Protein 1
Amino acid sequence: MTAQTSDTIFQAHDLVKRYGNVTALDGADFELRAGEILAVIGDNGAGKSSLIKALSGAVIPDSGRMLLDGKPVHFHSPIDARLHGIETVYQDLAVAPAMTIAENLFLGREILQAGLLGKYFKVIDKKKMLSEAIRHMQDLKIGIRSMSQAVETLSGGQRQGVAVARSTAFAKHVVILDEPTAALGVKEGNMVLELIRRVRDRGLSVILISHNMPHVFEIADRIHIQRLGKRVAVVNPKNISMSDTVAIMTGAKNPEDLPADAHA
Amino acid sequence: MKHHLHRLPSLASLGPCIALLVAGSFFATQSEHFLSGQNFSLILQQVMVVGVIAIGQTLIILTAGIDLSCGMAMALGSIVITKFAVDFGLHPYLAVVCGLLVCTLIGMLNGALVTKIKLPPFIVTLGTMNIVFAITQLYSGAQTVTDLPDALQFFGNTFRLGQTSITYGTLLMLALYLLIWFFLRNTAPGRHIYAVGNNREAARLTGIATDRVLIKVYMLAGLLYGVAALLSVARMGVGDPQSGQTENLDSITAVVLGGTSLFGGRGTVTGTLIGVLIVGVFRNGLTLMGVPSVFQVLVTGILVILAVATDQFTHKKA
């Protein structure tokens, strides 16, 4: 199966997470390679969101270990994960709608003015934040006219763009995207898929959680299938059909019955 | 040109200015005394105490909170300042520092209860309002403190600017507005206040220590109530344990009239200054017209409901 470890950037072994009698993660493994888009799919209750929460620091697993760049890591909060270069775009986007795009991009990480004003009075450098925001959004080809407009004036796809841009501006290793196309129409959904590709092409690794199979097959380099709290298979979307993938996800088909080249 | 349109002030932020201008023009036609430097100076003097309290109230409402204890904190602050100076013979400056400290501590208590025990700000400050009122009455024996040293009355003194005499207290109030305006607009901690009020969970996820922001906001508001206490002492020339009884609703009125949203995250301290002035101009104008003060209360009530209704319609969660 997955013999390559040289380019593995983020991995988890034997993660367990229980909520009372419910076992959400039952010895789950995970492996993300450098510069790939890895889709994580699974039925409701497969432990998909618990896995993602553990990877993004939102949940502390009961046992198991995680390695980032080969070094063991323990996240106690999403901030911990962020400090390690892992950024998460939450499904509800976690933006401040009344604030401007530039402010949202730099929220909690404002660029301060050089000199005493910045150091002692934490005076922000609005000009620099604005120009950095413009540069960054242009890099990602997100077409928004003015960075000083409030996020609430944007369409759903544009807001998603802002949230993705924020995470990529600061992620050093990994961007986790939770259902980025769920609330969008066809056109805006495609726009966001394009954006995710550009993020990968800039050298970041992307973890994509999605229910949308056509989107997953269009964009993912590999697909991690989660079932009953475990990883049951990692497949190559080029060599497997959508229906077989769904069959494995729901337990209708055994992963061992797949042809060898379907595994990734 | 078109993409600059969003930078123009919205109707919501222009509304208070228009209301102030309309009210001013109306009273100018009704009384020849209204349009004079001396009268404007008087209006500023009349609003300086509630004006400074309203700055603190704005900060708290920006975080989607509310503070009912502000007036009582101010009353206790003024009793501490005057009693420490008069009864203990403490140096007036030191007495002022003690007053500011007491008010800041009340703010810290409010902030701690809101963040650590996660109680709604309305209930927390309703409780502390009564507690602080009781402490003020017990400590002062419900007696006014008189015979103050001159230093405590400095901000009630005036200087002449042409034909108009202006109190130092109004200058202090305007300086505080300028300071907090800059703080909210141009500093990272200032912007974090908006973020916490606008979407607290998002602010937390971006790494802002939201609880710490909230506690600091309540403490800063408390400090401002302490300054208001000093102004109140200077203006009245006594420490009055019965003061501060209407300042909570008056300051909330001013904040809301100034266009700050009760949902948090939207609003400006300049709007609040205009809100304070609207209330001041109405009171002053109606008094000059000889309208009984009951009607002033009536008008203020109507204005508040209008302002809150505007807020509801423009910022209702989509």
Note: Confidence is low (pLDDT under 50) at residues 1-7 of chain B.
Protein 2
Amino acid sequence: MSLINFGHTHAGRNARMNKLLIVDDEIEICEFLKSFFEDRDFKVSVAHDGVRALEQIALCQPEVVLLDIQMPGMDGLQTLKKIKELYPKVKVIMVTAVETQEKIEEAMRLGADNYITKPLSLEYLEKDVQDKIDILAKGS
Amino acid sequence: MTVIFVVAYKNTERLIKKFLEKYFFHKKTFAQMTLMDLAGDLAVNLDLQEIANLVVNTFGEVLQLKTVALLVPDPLQSHFEVASAFGWSISASKKIRLASDTPLLKKVHQTGPHVLMRGPVLQSLSWQEANALARDLDSLQAAWVIPLFVKGELVGLLAFGALVPDTVFDQGDFHFFREFASAIAPCVHNALVVKRLRQLNFELQDSQSQWVQKTKLNAIEKLAAGIAHEIHNPLAIISGKAQVLLMQKGSKQLDPNVQDALNTIVKQTRRAADITRKLLMYSQGSRGPQEWITLEKVLDETLSLLAYQASMDKIEIVRNLDPELPLFFANMQEIREIFLNLLLNAVEAVGSEGKIVVELKYLRDEELIEIVCSDTGKGIPAEHLDKVFNPFYTTRHEAVGLGLFVTKQIVHRYGGSIRVESQVGIGSMFILQMPYTAEVVKSMGTERAGAQVLGAGRK
């Protein structure tokens, strides 16, 4: 009985845990973001390019994706387009080192839910991620 | 020895001429000699204005005329205008313009280098043609016109009228006029060519300096884009790791010194990123969307950002608005940046106590929007006045020195100008003027009408 109960609690906590995918070709950036959000009880997965990002979304089904715009290979905008095509419910926050008006407009047109510039304000980012999750929770 | 001889010879020649003039020719011939001497002098002069002044004044005085005007073609050869006039007010003479298809110019092209006499020429024409030609001559107040030709090209007209209505010139006079014309025509022609060359040279220099400026900006843009990209990632990592430590949950309280250091790291990385971001934003030629904006509103928003600092420092900020300020077609962000930079600058200059006045005006006649920002601050030394708009010019050690550079770039994008007047210890005044673009307004058509109604309703 107690064993089953324990299992239930564990499974329940897991289900409540919010899932986040961080996509950036800078490994160090992924690392500090991962530790920051894990500290806040997120289940965090990481990808360093667009193709891997799509794989991770299929695998982990995150609610929110933090997506770098400048990446080698399939860049952030192309990845964004694919994500919105395949997983329209997933919220995507674009992360950019250099924002040009055109890139930001393009991202918004492709359905990005917000954008944030580097260096990041983690306080703002946390609030924004939480906002997106709240919106999703209300919607479901 | 030879030199002395030549000089002596020249002088002797002159003396003989003068002698002949006095004893063998009548008084009028003396006038002719004076004029021919003048023609000789002109040959070494290349300044059109000087030549024209000399010709009309000498001609007018020597022949005791009422009016003389020298007309030359404008650079585009579309019409003839007055280079200099005798017996005319300057403003009246400047108004005279002969289009290249006016009856007088057509007639001159027909008759060639002959002197045109009002009476005979009008008699030779049908009354319609005569009327048309008479109008031209009347506009020049001229009874005679000497055309100046160089190798078949009409390079000028010397039009003149006499004091006494029945003044007549004889055959000899006309012969002389032709000779005089052929002597001064090349001088006028040369001067015209020189003038045009100078103008072209000026235009060339102008476009060259514009090109240099543009190249500089392009270089800054490339550099800024490169730096921003390469630097923002490491900055994000530095700042991110510090923030993770600061915002860690469940661990014990950080040492205040460590906390202080981490906060500084976060703040300073943000500052470093702002530098490249600003540089990039304003060296980029691309512009944000433009719309009809209420300058007053943008100004007030900007002022509210500064209100706290100003109140802390006993700075009085006064806004002085034109009650009929129209809406302005611009990018909101850019206009906000202009106000912010001007005001930040003023607040910095004023220090702990003083006054800042921002004026928004619409100069109806010039169709310009004028922004004037004056302060009672420390002022700018005269030797620095031409540098304040340069990138990286600053007097504060913790500032970047891009504010006014950026402001100037924006103002230039709107086809406007910015200048500064300043006196050390008294204050500075920045004056911006941007055209209230009539073309945009026209092309906006009905949209503009709606916008103006809105603008009126706001009052």
Note: The interface with chain A takes residues 225, 228-229, 232-233, 235-241, 243-244, 247-250, 269-270, 273, 277, 280, 284, 286, 288 of chain B (CB under 8 Å).
